[in-house]
Amino acid sequence: MEPTDLAPNSTPLDLAAGNDTPLAETALLNEPAPLAESAPAPEAAAGFAPRTDFAQLSARAEAVRAEIGKIIVGQADLLELLLTAVLADGHVLLEGVPGVAKTLMAKLLARTLAVPFSRIQFTPDLMPADVLGTSIFRQNTGEFEFRRGPIFASVVLIDEINRAPAKTQSALFEVMEERTVTQDGTTYTMQEPFLVLATQNPVEQEGTYRLPEAQLDRFLFKLRVGYPTLAEEVQILQGHHAGFGGTSLDSVQPILSAADLGALRAQVRQQRVEPNILEYIAKLVGQTRAHKALYLGASPRASLALLNGAKALAALRGRDFVTPEDVQFLAPSVLRHRILLTPEREMEGGTPDEVVQQIVQSVEVPR
Length: 367
Known about the structure:
A five-stranded parallel beta sheet has the order 3-6-9-1-10. A two-stranded parallel ribbon has the order 2-11. A two-stranded antiparallel sheet has the order 4-5. By secondary structure, it is an alpha/beta fold. The chain is globular, with a radius of gyration of 21 Å. It starts with 41 loop residues before the first helix and ends in a 5-residue tail after the last helix. The protein has 14 helices and 13 strands. Helix 10 crosses helix 11, helix 10 packs parallel to helix 12 and helix 11 packs across helix 12.
């Protein structure tokens, strides 16, 4: 198998790409395969008796991991964060250098969901109508008809999101936050679920546009996709040498239908969160507005993202309550794209992750 980024197609609007999977049009994937009998959550199996039964959620999550593991080697933490975002109903920005499988990971995650999927390759000449859709005139009826664009899908993979100009970026604002598209005075509501998985390359700046803070704030998580470990890379080479590198994406089967996902999300929303955890989240986010190394702190939307993400992560780990460790684990992914360093800190070589870590260490942990 090859950990390559499968987004080389340079056509302006790539619904097809066709590197290894047919994406010519928004497609409804097959019905999810029947699951084996649900296994108990790890902590439940160890004697912990949760007030809410997350056995079904844990079984589904493990099935998704198994399907993606047919193609991807390693990336366990990244996959856990992606599943957290799916359960928390949030969009994800994946950042990494070419060749670390960020596009492949997004495609595989989409394949495990039996919902409509589309892919858009962002380019400098991409226009808002190429994303949202456009009205065409029907001579036989003498009326305009709105033809929906590729954004009208449940899972939308936006490849190299920072290559589109500001006009196209702003077209995503409404649909990402409000989940509606307004065209010619008519508002169209997106179907549930609606998830945007976007990728960007942090090192190749030529021909790219910096994403505005307002759009970055729409992403629940910004996840960094790193290099594999030595052992993982050896495993990749062994698999490729043995002929497993050509494993088809068709071998990845859908696990969750839209109704399944809706039910799991409803279960996550019922998670117990103690008042001191809410105060802890507010203190963490509030510190970003007072830290001397930051020019811009995080908004209350970050607090909501941290809360929703922590509830989903706790459920994935088999608990029906949120702990401070859940919040600390998610803080970098939630905050790194919502804060801006001062010019002085940037010149010193500081990073948002370092500042977030300092804030996490400075705020008293509730017990």
